[in-house]
Amino acid sequence: MATVHDIEQFLFHWAPQKLAAEWDNVGHLVGDGDAEVHKVLVSLDITEDVVNEAIECSCDLIVSHHPVMNCTWHKVQNVRNDNPQGRMLIKMVRHGISAICMHTNLDAADGGVNDVLAEKLGLTDVKALNDEKIGRFGVLKCEMPLVEFTHSVIKYLSCNGLRYTDAGRPVHRVAVGGGSCGDYIPQAIAMGCDTFVTSDLSYHEFLDNREINLIDAGHFPTENLICPVIAQRLGDAFAQLTIIPSTTHCREVIQYCIKGEE
Q: Of 86, 99, 142, 262, which alpha carbon lies 20 to 30 A from 40's?
């Protein structure tokens, strides 16, 4: 039977640890590396609801994209029952649930988040957007108006909605960056892209840009598409495992209220 360590090494073969950003925390983060694994829950994030789901399904391991701790937004200063993160980590340890998290290394990896995102949006001739291999760019088979392309983005990424600005250019050469990739707007422009699909863009990133169409399709929709790929790869490599995609964390949590016509 495969162990937590075996599964970590398999995932690192796909998305090597050296590809992770310096600030990131990836790999086996919770639990016993020598523990045998029978059931794996795959989820974009590890939340308390996801942990409860893992307990209900008798899973030994959660594999997620976003790190459960020690990241820039989830630094662990203590593990106590009186805060949500501490309560979640204690619950995982008590129930023998391990966690493996593949984050920026999976963003950069071949066949990872950004390759899957580019494929979903119909891009061809796909190349890395920068030296860190975070982001991709490619071309659509046919040029299309921006509004038509935004409808395609909503359809193919299952977005509840999106934000965008129109630079007055039709869509043909497109850059993508799963998650928060606003820092790579200059690279997208330098690569001659007319459109950039990413998420978590700021007011000033929209306001100050006049050279490229910007589409903020949401953090969850631009990254959750990697979860079925993780599940498929684990199932192919470890036939003895039961792989369960999360059903408690499988849709966008952000809702949109749109102003109607008067």
A: 86
DSSP class of residue 36 equals: B
Q: Provide, rounded to the nearest whole percent, the portion of the chain with pLDDT above 90.
A: 89
pLDDT of residue 85: 87
Please give the full DSSP string across 55-73, using - where no structure is assigned. HHTT-SEEEESS-SSSBTT
The amino acid sitting at 52 is N
* Residue with token string 């925390």: 25
Q: How far apart are CA 69 and CA 28, in angstroms?
A: 11
Residues 195-217: pLDDT tens digits?
999 999 999 999 999 999 999 99
Report the pLDDT value the prediction gives residue 259, as an integer from 0 to 100.
82
State how far the Cα of 259 lies from the Cα of 237, in Å rounded to an integer: 48
- With 0.85 as the threshold, say if the pTM is over it: yes
Contact 4, 87 (CB under 8 A): no
Cβ-contact 196, 217 below 8 angstroms: no
Secondary structure class of 243 (helix, strand, coil)? strand
